[in-house]
Amino acid sequence: MKKMLFSIAIVLFTILLGVGNADNILITSAASTSTPTPIEIDLINGDEEKIGTATFTESSKGVKIRVKAEGLEPGTKAIHIHETGKCVAPDFTSAGGHFNPGKKEHGFENPKGFHAGDLPNIEVSAQGVVDVEIVAPGLTLKQGAENSLLDADGSALVIHEKADDYKTNPAGNAGDRIVCGVIGKE
Ligand SMILES: [Cu+2]
Ligand SMILES: [Zn+2]
């Protein structure tokens, strides 16, 4: 009799565990098949002041990146996704090189290009404001994908002092890094 009760207890316990696991499986599959949640990050300048935000939204065309910032020098600026989610002011070299899971060279006009993290230049207005939406076809927010912005060490959005020439390896001759924002981990 004792043995039988014990067996029943084991069966019940297994059912309970099974229900728990089924829940986990449902949650996991929902996360991998549905669209990832948009991410908003802060952008900081070399003085560690918050000067804007960037929002990343998964779409059928890639990741849409909405950049809103102020207090910048007017003009055309390079903007890239860099490979490491670390923004240590003032020079932001901590963010590493361009995000490049495909092992290409830099630049849309480079025959051996381009990096997944390469993005078209942005225009900062005479008032020092930028408000743009960029679509990055080679990127995703899906966890586990090779080109995911949310890989183990995260990634970073970086704005440079000058325009990207779209051809000079490894970084488009764009000068200093003036704005940085961590995507994913720090
Ligand atoms: Cu850059
Ligand atoms: Zn590049």
Automatic annotation (TrEMBL):
<comment type="similarity">
    <text>Belongs to the Cu-Zn superoxide dismutase family.</text>
</comment>
<dbReference type="InterPro" id="IPR001424">
    <property type="entry name" value="SOD_Cu_Zn_dom"/>
</dbReference>
<dbReference type="InterPro" id="IPR018152">
    <property type="entry name" value="SOD_Cu/Zn_BS"/>
</dbReference>
<keyword id="KW-0862">Zinc</keyword>
<keyword id="KW-0186">Copper</keyword>
<dbReference type="InterPro" id="IPR036423">
    <property type="entry name" value="SOD-like_Cu/Zn_dom_sf"/>
</dbReference>
<feature type="domain" description="Superoxide dismutase copper/zinc binding">
    <location>
        <begin position="52"/>
        <end position="183"/>
    </location>
</feature>
<keyword id="KW-0560">Oxidoreductase</keyword>
<protein>
    <recommendedName>
        <fullName>Superoxide dismutase [Cu-Zn]</fullName>
        <ecNumber>1.15.1.1</ecNumber>
    </recommendedName>
</protein>
<keyword id="KW-0479">Metal-binding</keyword>
<dbReference type="InterPro" id="IPR024134">
    <property type="entry name" value="SOD_Cu/Zn_/chaperone"/>
</dbReference>
<dbReference type="Pfam" id="PF00080">
    <property type="entry name" value="Sod_Cu"/>
</dbReference>
<comment type="function">
    <text>Destroys radicals which are normally produced within the cells and which are toxic to biological systems. May play a role in favoring mycobacterial survival in phagocytes.</text>
</comment>
